Amino acid sequence: MNEQEIYYTIALTRMTGFNFQTALRLYQELGGGQAVYEHRLDIKDVLPDCSNRLAESLKDWTLPLARAAQEMEFITKHKVKPLLLGDEDYPQRLAECPDAPILMYYMGSANLNQKRVINIVGTRQCTTYGKDLIRRFIADLRRLCPEMLIVSGLAYGVDICAHREALGNGYETVGVLAHGLDEIYPSSHRETAKQMLAQGGLLTEYMTETGADKMNFVKRNRIVAGMCDATILVESAAKGGGLITAGIAMDYNRSVFAFPGAVGAPYSEGCNQLIRDNGASLLTGAEDFVNAMGWQMDAKLLQAQNEGIERTFFPDLSLEEQAIVKILDEMGDFQLNQLSVKANIPIGQLTGLLFQLEMKGVVRPLAGGTYHLLK
Fold first, then answer.
1. What is the pLDDT of residue 309?
2. What is the dihedral of CA 210, 41, 87, 246, to 10 degrees?
3. Cα 66 to chain centroid, rounded
4. How many CA atoms lie within 13 A of 226 on its CB side?
5. Largest CB tally within 10 Å, which of 104, 137, 231, 328?
């Protein structure tokens, strides 16, 4: 852990006078929070188009650094893992999104970059129908896709039901919070949150002493959507946070699914409208979902691994093609630029190799320049 970089990046997130997108731009263009601090007095020399207002607001870091020092004490004492944008452990799917947080705080045991990551979201007024859907879906999903991370928001209703069913079925599950890690909201979910630390985790972009304000819940929805392959809406009124998450997921070119409900049922209106407007694929069960995502082979592969059978991919592939297939098998769906870096193959050459793999029926392209392994 680069404590100095974390310290200055925490301070950067506390700077006033500019918005989040500006902080992200500064972080990316200068290469980190410490670099922004080091250029606080000559920022216009390195960023000539920097406004006078921004340059002025960057000069005094006294209060942000004091607050960062306080946060560093909490991180150390409670074994919180700071995740900087660009770190290997940072959720890589989220890193692809244009409004990804430059820093998040994580407590838990789960790998946030598992091969399969989904979120299950919906109304806080979850009905018996919704609870039954979640129960059956996760139980069936466990059989079809034994390895998966399930993400939600630890809120009342659909969220907490999804977390608890995930835990009960042996899945790891992560709650994305709308406040700091110094509290659990709602407090009635504290025991479930404790279980999740050992079988999943808690993730937030917010520092300690940050309350669960309404706008924080809206902002955290982008993390829930961005770090996952797919969003599953169980129940929703005509307006609600689940619909917001689904909309963000669509903007990120993620897959969106919704369970239909009875016509006129108040907590199925949002799902039914989303399906009607082609904002989500209609979902009736886990098998629908697995087939739509192309994940049918997961259970068979795990069985083979448990029996000690090594999977040998396509012996007729070239060494470069085998390297690409190995990365996609280990990492899951991968974006072209990231695949180029991981495989150390120039994008021009990589594009040709991916085309050959597509013609051989090994991979298929997805929206947003992402590639999916078929076998």
1. 41
2. 50
3. 30
4. 17
5. 231
What is the arithmetic mean of pLDDT over 215-243? 95
Instruction: Round to the nearest angstrom and report the end-to-end CA distance of the chain.
Output: 37
Kindly report, residue by residue over 247-275, the tens digit of the pLDDT.
999 999 999 999 999 999 999 999 999 99
Q: Which two tokens stand for residue 47?
A: 């960023």
Residue-wise pLDDT tens digits, 25-56:
899 999 999 999 999 999 888 888 888 888 89
Q: Confirm whether pTM is higher than 0.85.
A: no
Tell me the C-alpha distance between 72 and 78, whole Å: 10
Torsions phi, psi for 373 (to 5 deg):
-80, 130
